[in-house]
């Protein structure tokens, strides 16, 4: 969290402790802003906060907050330290669900690649963490994905979906570096795909790497925005789970 004399960027979780931290940071800012050196002993860089009655909390435990005064000369190093660590995710398909999903993903810690085989499908303006790519055939893009990419497949064509899934499974066979392969659709669609992929000599173990339907269990709405939130939550569960 960055604290200025008249602004705050970021958070340490809110609540009373955050107000205390902001007050403490501004006390430390005051001598620097006036050009004076603080009198007496230098305040400790790290302050211990018991999470108890003194802060109006009942959760217990302690939190240690480290305070650091920075200025313009520190900006290059600070930018490196605070750079958001983003995870790669690729969305195949620029339809209604694809567009809704992009809107959700761009507010999350992902670097998004958005791929479609059709021309003129992407909006003119996209957020800074979204890269739009045209690929025809669409499955050719799979080999160019960054290692560790989560893949979401929702093109306008079942034939394209099948080819992208097959390309992902071939990559898994060779590199095993795609932590999530998600396919939009029903159980019936996946049953059909399973038979066709078995005909392409994919094993049951390989087919088990595909998640279809996608989204959090229990959310049944077919509205694109609801599907998008459900799928984004599922991806966050995948990338947050240990191992």
Q: What value does the Rg take, in angstroms?
A: 24 Å
**What is the terminal-to-terminal distance?**
29 Å
Structural class: alpha/beta
Q: What fraction of residues sit in β-strands? A: 15-25%
Question: SSE layout and pairings?
Answer:
Blueprint: E1 2-3, E2 8-9, H1 15-34, E3 46-50, E4 62-66, H2 75-82, E5 87-92, H3 96-105, E6 110-116, E7 130-134, E8 150-153, H4 158-174, E9 180-183, H5 187-199, H6 204-207, E10 210-211, H7 224-240
Parallel strand pairs: 5-6, 5-8, 6-7, 8-9, 9-10
Antiparallel strand pairs: 1-2, 3-4
What does this 3D model show about the protein?
The chain has 243 residues and is of the alpha/beta class. The chain folds into 2 domains: 2-82, no CATH class; 87-240, Rossmann fold. Helices cover 37% and strands 17% of the residues. It is built from 7 helices and 10 strands. It has helices spanning 15-34, 75-82, 96-105, 158-174, 187-199, 204-207, 224-240, and strands at residues 2-3, 8-9, 46-50, 62-66, 87-92, 110-116, 130-134, 150-153, 180-183, 210-211. The protein has a 6-stranded parallel beta sheet with strand order 7-6-5-8-9-10, sandwiched between helices. Helix 3 (96-105) links the parallel strand 5 (87-92) and strand 6. Helix 3 crosses helix 7. The longest helix is centred in the N-terminal third of the chain and has 20 residues, at 15-34. It is elongated and about 70 Å long. Mean pLDDT is 89; it is low at 37-41.
Structure in a nutshell:
The protein is an alpha/beta fold. The two termini are 29 Å apart.
């Amino acid at each position: 969290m960055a604290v200025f004399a008249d602004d705050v960027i970021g958070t340490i979780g809110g609540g009373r402790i955050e107000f205390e931290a902001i007050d403490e940071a501004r006390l430390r800012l005051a001598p620097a802003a006036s050009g004076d050196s603080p009198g007496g002993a230098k305040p400790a860089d790290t302050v211990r906060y018991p999470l108890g009655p003194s802060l109006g909390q009942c959760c217990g435990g302690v939190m240690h907050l480290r305070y650091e005064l920075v200025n313009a000369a520190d900006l290059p190093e600070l930018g490196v330290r605070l750079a958001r660590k983003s995870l790669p995710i690729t969305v195949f398909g620029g339809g209604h669900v694809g567009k809704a999903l992009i809107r959700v993903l761009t507010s999350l810690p992902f670097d998004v690649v958005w791929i479609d085989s059709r021309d003129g499908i992407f909006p003119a303006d996209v957020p800074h963490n979204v890269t739009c790519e045209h690929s025809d055939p669409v499955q050719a893009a799979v080999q160019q994905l960054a290692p560790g990419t989560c893949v979401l497949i929702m093109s306008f064509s079942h034939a394209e979906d099948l080819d992208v899934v097959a390309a992902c499974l071939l990559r898994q066979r060779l590199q095993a570096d795609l932590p999530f392969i998600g396919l939009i659709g029903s159980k019936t669609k996946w049953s059909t795909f399973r038979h066709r992929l078995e005909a392409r000599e994919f094993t049951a173990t390989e087919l088990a790497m595909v998640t279809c339907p996608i989204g959090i269990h229990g959310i049944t709405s077919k509205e694109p925005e609801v599907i998008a939130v459900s799928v984004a939550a599922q991806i966050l569960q995948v990338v947050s789970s240990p191992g």
